[in-house]
Amino acid sequence: MLLTACADRRRIPQVGEGSISQRLLVAARGLTAERETGEVAATEELERLATTLRAELDHHPREPPIEVVDRVVFGRQRFSREVDDSGLEVVLLPSVLRTRRGSCVGLGTLYLALGDLLGIPMRGILLPGHFFVRAWDNSRWRNVELLREGEEHPSEWYRARWPVPPTTKSVYDRALTEDEVLAIVEYDIGNELRRRGRVPESRRAFERSVAHFPSFPEAEASLGAMMQLSGELDAAARAYNLAKQISPQLAGVDDNIRLLESERVSRGAR
Left (φ > 0), alpha (ψ -120 to 50) or beta: where does 265 sit? Predict the structure, then answer.
């Protein structure tokens, strides 16, 4: 779980081997503008940012830690949201650190990485089409809306904007595991690679997403689409049906199944 025990604030923040921070950096390998040097530079920048935040937290011990993080990240460090661009630059942690710009996933994973380094318990939360975090605020879990500079909003506010459909497995509006957070990143990677026409690479990203988060219906359906493009109609059908079993109202799946059946009929008629 993305629940980090309270840490000694005197410790210099460092990205640990196998930590969620490192795993988020590794997920961007080969996909950032800097290529080989990007991960090293991003690690150094993440640790520098965490060190700055550690000093600020020590200077304001009575202030809720998440409010200190919000003020430094969106104020002094000038991170900003991106809601129009869906490219990898606003999703992957190295690029978010470099450009100071991120989507809900990009800023959300930045906060999870900082929480890991600072010992502030945080959890990733998935909604259909949205991602945010919850942070432990002394005696309660507090919603942190990264597209509004860390503003707190009640759960009702989220449910009104991103309604949760009925599912047969627990998918949305709950604390995600580290693997499941990585699945969200891989899903976004897969979508962008698909837009670029890089079908084999997109498929591998969706396969990793499904492996990390087996009940993630959007990833399962997207994997099915890549299988269909590759001509693997039986495998695509299984993926579509599994996605539909998990989320019966998932948009686009019925259309994909109809197209697949039409393709099967067309092949049989040849």
Answer: alpha
